[in-house]
Protein backbone atom coordinates (compact mmCIF):
# COMPACT_ATOMS: atom_id res chain seq x y z
CA UNK A 1 0.00 0.00 0.00
CA UNK A 2 1.49 3.35 -1.00
CA UNK A 3 0.39 6.93 -1.22
CA UNK A 4 -0.12 6.41 -4.93
CA UNK A 5 -3.37 4.62 -4.16
CA UNK A 6 -6.41 6.75 -4.97
CA UNK A 7 -10.17 6.59 -4.61
CA UNK A 8 -11.47 4.31 -7.34
CA UNK A 9 -14.57 6.39 -8.04
CA UNK A 10 -15.81 9.94 -7.64
CA UNK A 11 -17.98 8.92 -4.71
CA UNK A 12 -18.22 5.51 -3.00
CA UNK A 13 -21.62 3.80 -3.13
CA UNK A 14 -23.74 4.51 -0.03
CA UNK A 15 -23.44 1.17 1.71
CA UNK A 16 -25.57 0.92 4.87
CA UNK A 17 -22.50 0.11 6.92
CA UNK A 18 -23.95 -3.00 8.55
CA UNK A 19 -21.56 -5.85 9.20
CA UNK A 20 -23.37 -8.99 8.05
CA UNK A 21 -21.12 -11.40 9.92
CA UNK A 22 -21.40 -11.99 13.66
CA UNK A 23 -17.64 -12.35 13.96
CA UNK A 24 -14.93 -9.76 14.36
CA UNK A 25 -12.82 -8.92 11.33
CA UNK A 26 -9.43 -7.25 11.08
CA UNK A 27 -8.68 -4.44 8.68
CA UNK A 28 -5.96 -5.44 6.21
CA UNK A 29 -2.69 -3.51 5.90
CA UNK A 30 -2.78 -1.86 9.35
CA UNK A 31 -0.15 0.75 10.26
CA UNK A 32 3.33 -0.26 11.36
CA UNK A 33 3.05 1.49 14.74
CA UNK A 34 0.28 2.03 17.29
CA UNK A 35 -2.90 3.82 16.25
CA UNK A 36 -3.15 7.31 17.76
CA UNK A 37 -6.50 8.35 16.30
CA UNK A 38 -9.39 6.80 14.42
CA UNK A 39 -12.73 7.96 13.01
CA UNK A 40 -15.60 6.81 10.79
CA UNK A 41 -16.98 9.28 8.27
CA UNK A 42 -19.91 11.30 9.72
CA UNK A 43 -21.64 11.54 6.34
CA UNK A 44 -24.37 9.13 5.25
CA UNK A 45 -22.92 9.16 1.73
CA UNK A 46 -19.50 7.93 2.93
CA UNK A 47 -20.30 6.27 6.27
CA UNK A 48 -18.60 3.10 5.05
CA UNK A 49 -15.17 4.81 5.24
CA UNK A 50 -12.85 4.74 8.24
CA UNK A 51 -9.49 6.44 8.73
CA UNK A 52 -6.75 5.83 11.28
CA UNK A 53 -3.71 7.92 12.13
CA UNK A 54 -0.59 6.33 13.56
CA UNK A 55 2.76 6.91 15.19
CA UNK A 56 4.25 5.57 11.93
CA UNK A 57 3.52 9.02 10.36
CA UNK A 58 0.64 7.75 8.20
CA UNK A 59 -3.11 8.12 7.89
CA UNK A 60 -4.84 5.21 6.19
CA UNK A 61 -8.36 4.93 4.76
CA UNK A 62 -10.42 1.76 4.34
CA UNK A 63 -13.80 1.12 2.76
CA UNK A 64 -16.13 -1.27 4.58
CA UNK A 65 -17.95 -3.67 2.29
CA UNK A 66 -21.46 -5.02 3.06
CA UNK A 67 -19.80 -8.32 4.01
CA UNK A 68 -18.15 -6.50 6.91
CA UNK A 69 -14.64 -6.68 5.53
CA UNK A 70 -12.47 -3.63 4.96
CA UNK A 71 -10.61 -2.81 1.76
CA UNK A 72 -7.63 -0.40 1.75
CA UNK A 73 -8.53 2.70 -0.24
CA UNK A 74 -5.72 5.23 0.21
CA UNK A 75 -2.82 6.36 2.36
CA UNK A 76 -1.10 9.66 3.12
CA UNK A 77 2.05 10.40 5.09
CA UNK A 78 3.41 13.31 7.07
CA UNK A 79 6.96 13.89 8.23
CA UNK A 80 6.26 13.04 11.90
CA UNK A 81 3.72 10.98 13.90
CA UNK A 82 0.00 11.69 13.57
CA UNK A 83 -1.71 12.70 16.83
CA UNK A 84 -5.29 13.21 15.64
CA UNK A 85 -7.60 12.91 12.63
CA UNK A 86 -11.09 14.22 11.91
CA UNK A 87 -13.52 14.46 8.99
CA UNK A 88 -15.35 17.41 7.53
CA UNK A 89 -19.15 17.17 7.66
CA UNK A 90 -19.45 16.05 4.02
CA UNK A 91 -17.13 13.09 4.55
CA UNK A 92 -14.83 13.90 1.62
CA UNK A 93 -11.93 15.56 3.47
CA UNK A 94 -9.80 14.31 6.37
CA UNK A 95 -7.74 16.58 8.60
CA UNK A 96 -4.44 15.21 9.92
CA UNK A 97 -2.76 16.76 12.99
CA UNK A 98 0.90 15.95 13.44
CA UNK A 99 3.93 16.24 15.68
CA UNK A 100 5.48 18.35 12.91
CA UNK A 101 3.34 21.30 14.21
CA UNK A 102 1.06 21.26 11.16
CA UNK A 103 -2.42 20.12 10.14
CA UNK A 104 -2.97 18.96 6.58
CA UNK A 105 -6.28 18.53 4.77
CA UNK A 106 -6.57 15.35 2.69
CA UNK A 107 -8.97 15.51 -0.25
CA UNK A 108 -10.04 11.89 -0.67
CA UNK A 109 -11.37 12.44 -4.18
CA UNK A 110 -8.11 13.75 -5.60
CA UNK A 111 -5.88 12.01 -3.02
CA UNK A 112 -4.02 15.31 -2.54
CA UNK A 113 -3.14 17.12 0.70
CA UNK A 114 -2.59 20.77 1.60
CA UNK A 115 -1.47 22.43 4.82
CA UNK A 116 -4.33 24.30 6.52
CA UNK A 117 -3.06 25.05 10.05
CA UNK A 118 0.16 25.51 12.02
CA UNK A 119 1.28 25.84 15.64
CA UNK A 120 4.57 26.36 17.47
CA UNK A 121 4.51 22.82 18.92
CA UNK A 122 2.93 19.44 18.02
CA UNK A 123 -0.79 19.62 17.25
CA UNK A 124 -2.65 17.27 19.61
CA UNK A 125 -6.27 17.72 18.50
CA UNK A 126 -8.27 18.73 15.43
CA UNK A 127 -12.05 19.03 15.07
CA UNK A 128 -14.27 20.31 12.29
CA UNK A 129 -16.96 22.78 13.38
CA UNK A 130 -20.11 23.17 11.28
CA UNK A 131 -22.00 25.99 12.93
CA UNK A 132 -25.06 27.87 11.72
CA UNK A 133 -23.10 31.00 10.79
CA UNK A 134 -19.63 29.67 10.01
CA UNK A 135 -17.52 26.57 9.33
CA UNK A 136 -13.99 26.19 10.65
CA UNK A 137 -11.32 23.84 11.92
CA UNK A 138 -10.44 23.89 15.63
CA UNK A 139 -6.90 22.81 16.54
CA UNK A 140 -5.33 22.36 19.97
CA UNK A 141 -1.60 22.21 20.53
CA UNK A 142 1.15 21.61 23.04
CA UNK A 143 2.07 25.26 22.42
CA UNK A 144 -0.80 26.06 24.85
CA UNK A 145 -3.11 27.54 22.26
CA UNK A 146 -6.47 26.73 20.73
CA UNK A 147 -6.86 28.04 17.18
CA UNK A 148 -9.79 28.32 14.77
CA UNK A 149 -9.17 28.28 11.02
CA UNK A 150 -11.13 29.37 7.98
CA UNK A 151 -9.63 27.10 5.32
CA UNK A 152 -9.59 30.00 2.86
CA UNK A 153 -6.93 31.81 4.91
CA UNK A 154 -3.45 30.90 6.12
CA UNK A 155 -4.02 32.79 9.37
CA UNK A 156 -6.33 31.68 12.19
CA UNK A 157 -9.58 33.58 12.62
CA UNK A 158 -9.17 33.26 16.39
CA UNK A 159 -6.44 32.20 18.82
CA UNK A 160 -7.16 31.37 22.46
CA UNK A 161 -4.18 31.29 24.81
CA UNK A 162 -4.40 28.59 27.47
CA UNK A 163 -2.32 28.09 30.58
CA UNK A 164 -1.32 24.53 29.71
CA UNK A 165 -0.82 22.14 26.79
CA UNK A 166 -3.93 20.78 25.07
CA UNK A 167 -4.25 17.06 25.80
CA UNK A 168 -7.76 16.23 24.59
CA UNK A 169 -10.85 17.89 23.11
CA UNK A 170 -14.18 17.25 21.45
CA UNK A 171 -16.74 19.19 19.41
CA UNK A 172 -20.47 18.56 19.05
CA UNK A 173 -22.39 21.67 18.04
CA UNK A 174 -23.15 23.88 19.92
CA UNK A 175 -20.43 22.85 22.40
CA UNK A 176 -16.66 22.38 22.43
CA UNK A 177 -14.81 21.02 25.45
CA UNK A 178 -11.02 21.16 25.84
CA UNK A 179 -8.87 19.32 28.38
CA UNK A 180 -5.35 20.51 29.19
CA UNK A 181 -2.39 19.49 31.30
CA UNK A 182 -2.80 20.05 35.05
CA UNK A 183 -6.37 18.73 34.64
CA UNK A 184 -7.78 21.88 33.06
CA UNK A 185 -11.26 21.71 31.51
CA UNK A 186 -12.77 24.52 29.41
CA UNK A 187 -16.23 24.79 27.88
CA UNK A 188 -17.01 26.86 24.77
CA UNK A 189 -20.26 27.62 22.96
CA UNK A 190 -20.10 27.67 19.18
CA UNK A 191 -23.30 29.60 18.46
CA UNK A 192 -23.17 33.12 17.03
CA UNK A 193 -20.47 34.38 14.73
CA UNK A 194 -17.53 32.82 16.59
CA UNK A 195 -16.75 30.47 19.52
CA UNK A 196 -17.33 31.97 22.97
CA UNK A 197 -15.70 30.87 26.23
CA UNK A 198 -18.33 29.79 28.78
CA UNK A 199 -16.46 28.56 31.84
CA UNK A 200 -13.64 26.48 33.25
CA UNK A 201 -14.68 23.29 35.01
CA UNK A 202 -13.00 21.82 38.06
CA UNK A 203 -11.88 18.29 37.23
CA UNK A 204 -13.32 15.56 39.46
CA UNK A 205 -10.37 13.32 38.62
CA UNK A 206 -7.14 12.98 40.57
CA UNK A 207 -4.81 12.17 37.67
CA UNK A 208 -4.09 13.47 34.20
CA UNK A 209 -6.81 13.53 31.56
CA UNK A 210 -6.27 11.11 28.68
CA UNK A 211 -9.42 11.34 26.52
CA UNK A 212 -12.64 13.31 26.21
CA UNK A 213 -15.96 12.83 24.42
CA UNK A 214 -19.23 14.79 24.32
CA UNK A 215 -22.43 12.75 24.66
CA UNK A 216 -26.03 13.42 23.62
CA UNK A 217 -29.47 12.98 25.09
CA UNK A 218 -30.69 9.80 23.37
CA UNK A 219 -34.24 11.07 22.83
CA UNK A 220 -33.52 14.61 21.64
CA UNK A 221 -30.10 13.89 20.08
CA UNK A 222 -28.75 17.15 21.52
CA UNK A 223 -25.39 17.40 23.35
CA UNK A 224 -25.87 17.48 27.13
CA UNK A 225 -22.51 16.57 28.68
CA UNK A 226 -19.14 14.94 28.29
CA UNK A 227 -17.04 12.09 29.60
CA UNK A 228 -13.40 12.53 30.56
CA UNK A 229 -11.03 9.59 31.03
CA UNK A 230 -7.80 9.57 32.99
CA UNK A 231 -4.60 7.67 33.55
CA UNK A 232 -5.89 6.49 36.95
CA UNK A 233 -8.56 4.12 35.60
CA UNK A 234 -11.50 6.46 36.07
CA UNK A 235 -14.03 8.18 33.82
CA UNK A 236 -15.99 11.23 34.98
CA UNK A 237 -19.40 12.02 33.52
CA UNK A 238 -20.16 15.75 33.57
CA UNK A 239 -23.44 17.37 32.52
CA UNK A 240 -23.26 20.83 30.98
CA UNK A 241 -27.01 21.06 30.35
CA UNK A 242 -28.71 21.10 33.75
CA UNK A 243 -31.20 18.31 34.43
CA UNK A 244 -32.68 17.67 37.87
CA UNK A 245 -32.66 13.90 37.30
CA UNK A 246 -29.01 13.74 36.20
CA UNK A 247 -25.99 14.18 38.43
CA UNK A 248 -22.26 14.17 37.74
CA UNK A 249 -20.48 10.99 38.77
CA UNK A 250 -17.27 9.02 38.36
CA UNK A 251 -16.79 5.42 37.21
CA UNK A 252 -13.92 3.25 38.37
CA UNK A 253 -12.83 1.12 35.43
CA UNK A 254 -9.94 -0.87 33.99
CA UNK A 255 -8.84 -2.23 37.36
CA UNK A 256 -7.82 -5.78 38.13
CA UNK A 257 -7.24 -7.55 41.48
CA UNK A 258 -3.73 -8.81 42.11
CA UNK A 259 -3.60 -12.40 43.32
CA UNK A 260 -6.15 -13.44 45.92
CA UNK A 261 -6.43 -10.12 47.73
CA UNK A 262 -9.36 -8.15 46.29
CA UNK A 263 -8.23 -4.98 48.04
CA UNK A 264 -4.94 -4.99 46.10
CA UNK A 265 -5.50 -3.96 42.50
CA UNK A 266 -3.67 -2.97 39.36
CA UNK A 267 -4.95 0.30 37.89
CA UNK A 268 -4.73 0.90 34.14
CA UNK A 269 -5.06 4.03 32.04
CA UNK A 270 -8.24 4.76 30.11
CA UNK A 271 -6.87 5.27 26.61
CA UNK A 272 -10.12 6.22 24.90
CA UNK A 273 -13.87 6.55 25.40
CA UNK A 274 -16.87 6.86 23.11
CA UNK A 275 -20.66 6.93 23.27
CA UNK A 276 -22.98 4.79 21.16
CA UNK A 277 -24.85 7.09 18.72
CA UNK A 278 -28.20 5.31 19.22
CA UNK A 279 -28.17 3.77 22.71
CA UNK A 280 -26.03 6.38 24.44
CA UNK A 281 -24.01 3.70 26.22
CA UNK A 282 -20.40 4.47 27.08
CA UNK A 283 -17.49 2.34 25.93
CA UNK A 284 -14.09 2.62 27.60
CA UNK A 285 -10.85 1.29 26.10
CA UNK A 286 -8.02 0.52 28.45
CA UNK A 287 -4.36 -0.14 28.85
CA UNK A 288 -5.42 -3.48 30.38
CA UNK A 289 -6.25 -4.72 26.83
CA UNK A 290 -10.02 -4.72 27.45
CA UNK A 291 -12.96 -2.58 26.34
CA UNK A 292 -16.09 -2.27 28.46
CA UNK A 293 -19.65 -1.07 27.86
CA UNK A 294 -21.37 1.03 30.57
CA UNK A 295 -24.93 2.25 31.10
CA UNK A 296 -24.35 5.80 32.34
CA UNK A 297 -28.03 6.26 33.29
CA UNK A 298 -27.76 3.65 36.03
CA UNK A 299 -23.96 3.94 36.55
CA UNK A 300 -23.45 0.23 35.81
CA UNK A 301 -21.15 -1.99 33.79
CA UNK A 302 -22.87 -3.92 31.00
CA UNK A 303 -20.12 -6.21 29.70
CA UNK A 304 -16.41 -6.38 28.98
CA UNK A 305 -14.51 -7.87 26.08
CA UNK A 306 -12.05 -10.71 26.35
CA UNK A 307 -8.54 -9.60 27.17
CA UNK A 308 -6.38 -8.96 24.12
CA UNK A 309 -2.63 -9.44 23.93
CA UNK A 310 -1.98 -5.68 23.59
CA UNK A 311 -3.51 -2.50 24.96
CA UNK A 312 -6.56 -0.99 23.27
CA UNK A 313 -5.39 2.42 22.11
CA UNK A 314 -8.41 3.89 20.27
CA UNK A 315 -12.06 3.12 19.52
CA UNK A 316 -15.04 4.55 17.61
CA UNK A 317 -18.57 3.73 16.39
CA UNK A 318 -19.79 4.17 12.83
CA UNK A 319 -22.57 6.62 12.00
CA UNK A 320 -25.54 4.31 12.58
CA UNK A 321 -24.03 2.48 15.55
CA UNK A 322 -23.83 -0.92 13.89
CA UNK A 323 -20.05 -1.24 13.93
CA UNK A 324 -17.52 -0.79 16.71
CA UNK A 325 -13.89 -0.34 15.65
CA UNK A 326 -10.97 -0.56 18.04
CA UNK A 327 -7.21 -0.69 17.69
CA UNK A 328 -4.74 -2.75 19.68
CA UNK A 329 -1.05 -1.99 20.02
CA UNK A 330 1.59 -1.14 22.56
CA UNK A 331 0.81 2.08 24.46
CA UNK A 332 4.17 2.29 26.31
CA UNK A 333 2.43 2.24 29.69
CA UNK A 334 4.91 -0.36 30.96
CA UNK A 335 8.01 1.27 29.55
CA UNK A 336 10.33 0.43 26.69
CA UNK A 337 11.39 -2.91 28.16
CA UNK A 338 7.92 -4.39 27.50
CA UNK A 339 7.80 -3.34 23.87
CA UNK A 340 7.70 -6.38 21.60
CA UNK A 341 8.42 -5.37 17.97
CA UNK A 342 7.09 -8.70 16.72
CA UNK A 343 3.58 -7.77 17.89
CA UNK A 344 2.06 -5.58 15.22
CA UNK A 345 -0.86 -3.18 15.68
CA UNK A 346 -4.30 -4.28 14.54
CA UNK A 347 -7.64 -2.60 13.87
CA UNK A 348 -10.65 -4.79 14.61
CA UNK A 349 -14.27 -4.32 13.49
CA UNK A 350 -17.06 -5.86 15.50
CA UNK A 351 -20.88 -5.77 15.18
CA UNK A 352 -22.03 -3.91 18.29
CA UNK A 353 -25.67 -2.85 18.09
CA UNK A 354 -26.97 -5.60 20.36
CA UNK A 355 -23.93 -5.81 22.65
CA UNK A 356 -24.11 -2.10 23.43
CA UNK A 357 -27.81 -1.95 24.33
CA UNK A 358 -28.59 -0.90 27.91
CA UNK A 359 -30.42 -3.52 29.96
CA UNK A 360 -33.46 -1.28 30.47
CA UNK A 361 -34.68 0.47 27.32
From TrEMBL:
<feature type="repeat" description="WD">
    <location>
        <begin position="28"/>
        <end position="65"/>
    </location>
</feature>
<dbReference type="InterPro" id="IPR019775">
    <property type="entry name" value="WD40_repeat_CS"/>
</dbReference>
<dbReference type="InterPro" id="IPR001680">
    <property type="entry name" value="WD40_rpt"/>
</dbReference>
<dbReference type="InterPro" id="IPR020472">
    <property type="entry name" value="WD40_PAC1"/>
</dbReference>
<dbReference type="InterPro" id="IPR015943">
    <property type="entry name" value="WD40/YVTN_repeat-like_dom_sf"/>
</dbReference>
<feature type="repeat" description="WD">
    <location>
        <begin position="270"/>
        <end position="304"/>
    </location>
</feature>
<feature type="repeat" description="WD">
    <location>
        <begin position="116"/>
        <end position="159"/>
    </location>
</feature>
<keyword id="KW-0677">Repeat</keyword>
<dbReference type="InterPro" id="IPR036322">
    <property type="entry name" value="WD40_repeat_dom_sf"/>
</dbReference>
<protein>
    <submittedName>
        <fullName>mRNA export factor-like</fullName>
    </submittedName>
</protein>
<dbReference type="Pfam" id="PF00400">
    <property type="entry name" value="WD40"/>
</dbReference>
<keyword id="KW-0853">WD repeat</keyword>
Amino acid sequence: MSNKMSMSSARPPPYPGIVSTSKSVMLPQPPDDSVSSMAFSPSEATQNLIVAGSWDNTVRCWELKPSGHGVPRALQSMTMPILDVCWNDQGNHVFMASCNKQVHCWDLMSNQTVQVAAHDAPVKTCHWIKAQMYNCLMTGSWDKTLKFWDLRSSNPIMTINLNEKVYCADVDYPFAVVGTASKGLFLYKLEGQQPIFVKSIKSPLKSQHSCLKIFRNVKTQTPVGFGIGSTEGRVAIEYVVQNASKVNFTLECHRRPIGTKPEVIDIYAVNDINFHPVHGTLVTAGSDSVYTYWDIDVHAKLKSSDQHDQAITKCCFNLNGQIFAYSIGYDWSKGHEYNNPSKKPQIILKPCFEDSKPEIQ
